[in-house]
């Protein structure tokens, strides 16, 4: 809301470390409001950091083995943690206790690699197991189900496909589809409602798919694979499946619009993340000795913009802030570095009506600048100006703009109506209660 | 309405109808708002006595008179749900009242010197109070006990406010410092050496990215909460020492009161004064103003002539004057949901008066 005052330049990428949260974390995720960071730890807990106070405000302690992923519901009320202990726990941050109340525990029969909320309804969860199976778990009363996403195999070459397992699974930003990466370099697309596979994209030369990321705007996604290349693709459109009809599976080879790799040291990538406007893509390098974040300018044909150096602790994860030019990168020592775009201190701000000029400027006096005007007339003009109506209430933007997130859709869309049925309690108005910390209670 | 109607009283010898020089007053002024035009000389009479306005007017009437403070009252504030009203005074006490019955519910005692300001947390559970004993206390209003005692200011603490999430607290002291506190731990996170004189008001904007502060050095400053950088300074005329400032409900404007008996609404992006509200008297005391948005859109302020003034936000006319206090009215507050105003006065009056607009009930 105060972008013009806070940041005089257009949003750009972060350039410097603002703060370091010593968290014992193995990865960190901003919430959709951008006020909190959830840090997953290998001891089975997740810490919720408040970025205003830079302090841990909640400990989600419930797993007995390492937390493998966290996800936030769209208005940040619910947090999901998945763990190697075969469980996914959903926490309700609106409960005024620490650790927060669990509102659901989903058990599987293998370690959970990752889990995500459906972007429109946190009662639908997508989970990927270390055995290479992906499940959509629906905990709504009317739809209660646990459905495995199964690849539909074609007649030919099924021996080869049989060996492929799922290695990454994500909802797309609209929640209509689940994208699954496989160990053989395929991206499978499933309809979230019907759980039927609608497309299989072969990505030549990719090998094992390590992760998938979607840009919130601009219908783009990026893949990270074992060939040490990040590829960016244009998101294809898929027809909504017709109920009852055997629908054809779209089999295509996707051609990346860009390939990003490190041409010199040829390192692989741990993670990647799009900026909120989709104009930048950040890649976290897996270099074992440095903490390097590469940033590419997507709006400028994917040109390499810069490499940020975060010191000597190697990087293991990155995540871009949902609104601002900030990044969270995690070091292998468990610190979460928050990157920002520092604005230089303007000393002119301390004097009213004073402007700083970068260079000497020849001052040109305006025609009537120092004319002595009639006071009465001045007062009258001021009075006229003051008759302009002001609006002291309106024009307040919501922190989380769902249109921006691609969550809003056309009415009458069957997939979205399905997801909106039995909505969760993740209202925009909920507030996190501040829990007072006793002085002797040292975190 | 006739924009020139009010000028009849304030003109001196000139006939303002004949004032057409090269700058036609009808043309909106596109120049950079020339160095703050000097105030029209005869200020107090500048308001139109009665224009042919069809706007609805407020009709506030006295409901309750709350007596109990033994020394000058400095602030009154409604709780966010509107069920309670808190007041603080130089008698070291915070008092919690019911605005509907006028009964005293609880005293919060613990400060060792007089209090200057109070602020409710958004959930209404806690109340922060700023005292001359150089500390800020956070009270649990239900139990009446101090939850946190924030020490760090080197001088009297004059003003205090929560952010919307109520995880941060900002306070301003008489040493010119503004401090930002982590509420949960009761620790000072940041000290801004903001001003050279008493900091008389501090306020967060809606999303807590900005803090506005003003001081008796005559400056209004806007700060970036995260970095502590000064983003802007608004200076009024040298005769207009500002003593209270706050963001509008949507945080697009700031409202300031100054010792030239004027309340101003600023667009802080352009540093332009959009509205000036005059007619009351404010030359000596720190008098707060506030927005009233539950019915009509008004600006409400106390005055040194022992009255409470209500202006129309848009037309800047005084639409109602509440009389009854027998001392300078330094504190006013508006109910968050109903058409209700609370006002507090210093010695010798020492009362809090609750006014409500009959049309609302």
UniProtKB/TrEMBL annotation, chain A:
SUPFAM superfamilies: WD40 repeat-like (SSF50978). WD repeats lie at residues 30-59, 60-95. InterPro entries: RBBP5/Swd1, WD40/YVTN_repeat-like_dom_sf, WD40_repeat_CS, WD40_repeat_dom_sf, WD40_rpt. The keyword Nucleus applies. Keywords: Nucleus, Repeat, WD repeat. It is found in: Nucleus. Pfam families: WD40. The keyword Methyltransferase does not apply. It comes from the Eukaryota. Gene3D superfamilies: YVTN repeat-like/Quinoprotein amine dehydrogenase. Its main location: nucleus. GO terms for cellular component: Set1C/COMPASS complex. This is Unplaced genomic scaffold CY34scaffold_97, whole genome shotgun sequence. It comes from Suillus luteus UH-Slu-Lm8-n1.
UniProtKB/TrEMBL annotation, chain B:
Residues 30-47 have a biased composition (Pro residues). It comes from the Eukaryota. It holds the Pfam family Beta-prop_WDR5. The keyword Methyltransferase does not apply. Residues 65-356 form the WDR5-like beta-propeller domain. One of its GO terms (cellular component) is Set1C/COMPASS complex. CDD domains: WD40. Coiled coil: none annotated. Residues 1-56 are annotated as: Disordered. Keywords: Repeat, WD repeat. WD repeats lie at residues 66-107, 108-149, 150-191, 192-233, 235-276, 296-321. GO terms for molecular function: histone binding. InterPro entries: Beta-prop_WDR5-like (IPR059122), WD40/YVTN_repeat-like_dom_sf (IPR015943), WD40_PAC1 (IPR020472), WD40_repeat_CS (IPR019775), WD40_repeat_dom_sf (IPR036322), WD40_rpt (IPR001680). Residues 10-26 have a biased composition (Acidic residues). This is WDR5-like beta-propeller domain-containing protein.
């Amino acid at each position: 809301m105060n972008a013009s005052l806070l940041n005089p330049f257009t949003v750009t990428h972060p350039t410097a470390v603002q703060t370091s949260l010593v968290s014992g974390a193995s990865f960190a995720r901003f919430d959709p409001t951008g006020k909190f960071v959830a840090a997953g730890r290998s001891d089975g807990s997740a810490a919720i950091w408040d970025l205003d106070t830079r302090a841990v405000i909640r400990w989600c302690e419930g797993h007995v083995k390492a937390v493998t992923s966290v996800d936030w519901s769209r208005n940040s009320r619910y947090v999901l943690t998945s763990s190697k202990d075969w469980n996914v726990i959903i926490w309700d941050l609106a409960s005024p206790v620490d650790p927060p109340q669990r509102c659901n525990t989903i058990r599987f029969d293998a370690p959970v690699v990752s889990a995500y909320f459906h972007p429109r309804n946190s009662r639908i969860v997508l989970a990927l197991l270390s055995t290479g199976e992906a499940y959509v778990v629906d905990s709504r009363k009317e739809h209660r189900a646990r459905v495995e996403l199964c690849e539909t195999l074609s007649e030919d070459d099924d021996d080869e496909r049989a060996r492929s397992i799922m290695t990454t699974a994500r909802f797309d930003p609209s929640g209509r589809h689940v994208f699954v990466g496989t160990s053989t370099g395929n991206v499978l697309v499933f309809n979230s409602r019907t759980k039927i596979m609608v497309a299989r994209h072969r990505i030549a030369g990719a090998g094992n798919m390590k992760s998938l990321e979607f840009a919130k705007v601009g219908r783009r996604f990026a893949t990270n694979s074992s060939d040490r290349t990040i590829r960016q693709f244009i998101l294809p459109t898929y027809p909504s499946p017709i109920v009852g009809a055997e629908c054809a599976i779209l089999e295509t080879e996707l051609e990346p619009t860009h390939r990003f790799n490190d041409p010199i040291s040829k390192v692989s990538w741990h993670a990647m993340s799009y900026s909120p406007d989709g104009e930048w893509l950040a890649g976290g390098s897996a270099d074992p000795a440095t903490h390097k974040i590469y940033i590419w300018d997507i709006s400028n044909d994917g040109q390499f913009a810069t490499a940020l150096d975060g010191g000597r602790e190697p990087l293991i994860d990155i995540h871009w802030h949902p609104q601002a030019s900030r990044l969270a990168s995690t070091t292998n020592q468990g610190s979460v570095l928050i990157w920002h775009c520092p604005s230089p201190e303007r000393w002119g701000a301390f004097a009213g009506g004073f402007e700083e000029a970068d260079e000497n400027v020849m001052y040109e006096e305006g025609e009537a600048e120092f004319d002595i005007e009639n006071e009465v007339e001045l007062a009258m003009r001021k009075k006229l100006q003051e008759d302009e109506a002001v609006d002291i209430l309106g024009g307040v933007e919501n922190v989380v703009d769902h249109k921006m997130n691609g969550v809003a859709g056309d009415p009458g869309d069957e997939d979205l109506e399905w997801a909106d049925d039995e909505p969760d309690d993740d209202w925009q108005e909920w507030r996190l209660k501040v829990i007072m910390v006793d002085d002797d209670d040292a975190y | 309405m006739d924009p020139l109607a009010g000028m009849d009283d304030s003109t001196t010898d000139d006939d303002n109808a004949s004032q057409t020089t090269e700058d036609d007053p009808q043309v909106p002024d596109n120049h950079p708002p020339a160095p703050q035009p000097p105030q029209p000389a005869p200020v107090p009479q500048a308001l139109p006595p009665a224009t042919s306005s069809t706007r609805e007017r407020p009709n506030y009437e006295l409901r309750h008179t709350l007596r109990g403070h033994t020394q000058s009252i400095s602030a009154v504030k409604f709780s966010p749900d509107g069920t309670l009203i808190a007041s603080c005074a130089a008698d070291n006490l915070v008092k919690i009242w019911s605005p509907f019955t006028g009964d005293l519910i609880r005293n919060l005692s613990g400060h060792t010197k007089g209090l200057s300001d109070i602020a409710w947390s958004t959930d209404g559970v806690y109340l922060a109070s700023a005292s001359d004993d150089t500390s800020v206390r956070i009270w649990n209003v239900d139990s009446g006990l101090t939850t946190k005692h924030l020490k760090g200011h080197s001088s009297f603490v004059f003003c205090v406010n929560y952010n919307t999430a109520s995880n941060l607290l900002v306070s301003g002291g008489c040493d010119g410092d503004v401090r930002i506190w982590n509420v949960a731990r009761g620790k000072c996170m940041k000290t801004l050496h903001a001003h050279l004189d008493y900091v008389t008001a501090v306020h967060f904007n809606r999303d807590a990215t900005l803090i506005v502060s003003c001081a008796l050095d005559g400056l209004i400053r806007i700060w970036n909460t995260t970095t502590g950088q000064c983003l802007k300074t608004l200076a009024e005329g040298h005769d207009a020492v500002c003593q209270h400032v706050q963001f509008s409900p949507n945080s697009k404007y700031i409202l300031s009161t100054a010792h030239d008996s004027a309340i101003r609404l600023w667009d802080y992006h352009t540093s332009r004064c959009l509205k000036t509200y005059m007619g009351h008297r404010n030359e000596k005391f720190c008098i707060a103003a506030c927005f009233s948005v539950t019915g009509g859109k008004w600006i409400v302020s106390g005055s040194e002539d022992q009255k409470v003034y209500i202006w129309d936000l848009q037309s800047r006319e005084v639409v109602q004057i509440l009389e009854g206090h027998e001392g300078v009215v330094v504190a006013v507050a508006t109910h968050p949901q109903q058409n209700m105003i609370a006002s507090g006065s210093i010695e010798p009056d020492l009362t809090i008066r609750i006014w409500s607009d009959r049309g609302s009930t």
